[in-house]
Automatic annotation (TrEMBL):
Cited Gene3D superfamilies: 3.40.630.30
Record's keyword annotation contains Coiled coil: no
UniProt source species: Nonomuraea jabiensis
PROSITE patterns (UniProt xref): GNAT
Name of the protein in question: Aminoglycoside 6'-N-acetyltransferase
A Pfam family per the record: Acetyltransf_8
Enzyme Commission no: 2.3.1.82
Domain of life: Bacteria
Length: 182
């Protein structure tokens, strides 16, 4: 069973450990000192930033992290993505990782993504779609999005999270199901 809660400062040591894992560091390219983790994740944990960092659990045990945000709250990111595909009002983005290397490759990524997307419709009023850019080089990530029910709607160049991967990206989308209340 997949559950989650907002990431708190008490979770930063675990997050730091995950960010140091080679399978995460390859794509997240994040500084891993406690100062850097606190600097970069602290504002969202304290509710000072509009994005959400969600600590995801599998059967009560920490599994990974999902970052969820509205594109409207990040105009620069919205403008960059808009060069590849229309970004409707209410569009939401997610980013994700599975922290424990022993849990990678077991089909949990699509399950985690699907679960967060399903709850996004209820938890973010006015959310129209989930739109996710992913490095074209990160086959495991874009395959997880496909298995979670998202469809590729665009491809092109965006600023990469890790410069070693180049600018080529795919963009995936899933729309709010018809008939769901907003």
């Amino acid at each position: 069973m997949i559950t989650w809660r907002r990431l708190g400062q008490e979770d930063f040591p675990l997050l730091r450990t995950w960010l140091e894992q080679p399978h995460v560091a390859l794509w997240w390219n994040h500084e891993t000192s406690m100062e850097a983790v606190t600097r970069d994740f602290g504002p969202a944990a304290r509710g000072e930033e509009p994005s959400e960092d969600l600590l995801v659990f599998l059967d009560g045990r920490p599994l990974g992290l999902v970052q969820r945000s509205r594109y409207a709250d990040y105009p620069g990111y919205l403008a960059e993505l808009s060069t590849l595909t229309p970004v409707p009002d209410g569009a939401v983005s997610i980013d994700y990782l599975i922290g424990d290397p022993g849990q990678v490759g077991r089909g949990l990524g699509p399950e985690m993504i699907r679960s967060v997307i399903e709850r996004t419709w209820a938890e973010i009023p006015g959310s129209s779609c989930v739109l996710v850019p992913v490095s074209a080089a990160n086959r495991a990530s874009w395959r997880a999005l496909e298995k979670a029910g998202m469809r590729r709607v665009a491809e092109g160049e965006l600023e990469p999270d890790n410069p070693i991967h180049g600018r080529a990206h795919y963009v995936y989308r899933v729309d709010r199901p018809a008939g769901l209340p907003e």
